[in-house]
Amino acid sequence: MSKTDDAWEILFERHKILENVRQNGFFEIQAKEIKKVREPRLMAKFDHFSHLPKLFKEHGLSILPISRSSYVIGEFDVYEKVHYNHKLKPIRVDFPADLTTIDPTNLYSESSALHCAHVTGMMEMVMGEESYQTISGRMSSREFDFHIQTKKGNDRHITIKNSQIEIDGGYESQNQFMIVEAKNETVDDFLVRQLYYPYRLWKEKTHKEVKPVFFTYSNDIFSFFVYEFTDPKRYNSLRLIEQKDFIIAHEKLELEDIVAIFQTVQPVQEPEIPFPQADSFTRLVDLLGLLVENDLSKEDITQNYDFDVRQTSYYTSAGMYLGLIEKYIDENKQVMFTLTKSGKEIMRLRTKDKFLRLTKSILDHEPFKQVLAEYFQNGTLPEKPRIVEIMKRCNLYNVNSESTYFRRASTVTGWINWILELPEIY
Fold first, then answer.
1. Which ranges carry the DUF6997 domain (predicted)?
2. Tell me: the pLDDT tens digits for 78-112?
3. Is the dihedral of CA 124, 168, 211, 78 positive or negative?
4. Which domains does the chain have, with CATH numbers?
5. pTM for this one?
6. First and final CA of the chain: distance in angstroms?
7. Long-range interactions of 265-271: CB distance < 8 A, separation 24+
């Protein structure tokens, strides 16, 4: 249980929140009541479903701000699933050669990724016309009302009065105003409120078409999810129009490059670190990117990014297994994660070199190299029982039971597939 879970346990009991939601369909709570147990900003901002406190998940609840000092809790359907179209080939764009204040090899904050997207013309390609960045930051929502659907399909009416909103980027063209909510990682879902509240505010303030866009920068790919609200008065009327992916033009990564690494790499001795259980290497690259900007605690990673508690443990451990992440105890006796010297070097490289060095860091480990060898020999990946057979020969640290071998075999498959897909994407 996290501090947030503990604090909500107290509030649920103190204010009979569950009983009120069941009886009235929702419960309004004041920020000052939340503050009696913990800071409201830590208690009410859940950008992804995985961030919701235990009690909220158990009872199908979510929370929305309705003013600067109050929130509403109910069985609201507030998140939108994000489905990446992995068959989409990223559009290659050139980075302006004369710019010195943006480093395209160091775009590990949301703002730097958005600035880069703008100067390389991505915004214009998404909007179809020349645009200017006109706004960003915090502002007031003013007053509006809307209907929201509950998870049981019921309809609730909500009124918002001067709630605080934040816009990562606002871009105006001749006929449109594009509002962008940005994340510098691959995500499973996002909080629709982050687009809906700004959409309602600016729909009243400009006669131009307001275009809500969710943006992610992950593994050097800029993904734009362009939406529309089919009914401006309905929170759940969000509809995806298109996804557009971009990448900064670079030297193409070929299968021959991977073969060259495979042929020259000399596997290292297995470290005394648990063999990884982290199936998505894309997510691990995201985590490495987050650590470029700052050292982070387990709680930082879990609260601020789309990782749950278990995933945070698995992916930090996987980074340590590869020698790219290390941990230390800070002055507050808190466990912190940081990039190793090798991790820092790799994450500062240009796209092709970065992904080839990451490939080497995987193939440095015998189980992965042997599985890739069988792929090159047979043209298909070995089945899971065969992968387990290979793993058992490699003297893995602290992997004993058959079920553990089979779970870890999924990581081997996931990481080798990531390597083999690189020439298709990059």
1. 74-247
2. 999 999 998 899 999 999 999 999 999 999 899 99
3. positive
4. 3-75 (no CATH), 81-248 (no CATH), 255-425 (1.10.10)
5. 0.92
6. 41
7. 265/360, 265/363, 265/364, 265/369, 266/364, 267/363, 267/364, 267/365, 267/366, 267/369, 268/364, 268/365, 270/365, 270/366, 270/394, 270/395, 270/396, 270/397, 271/320, 271/321, 271/323, 271/397
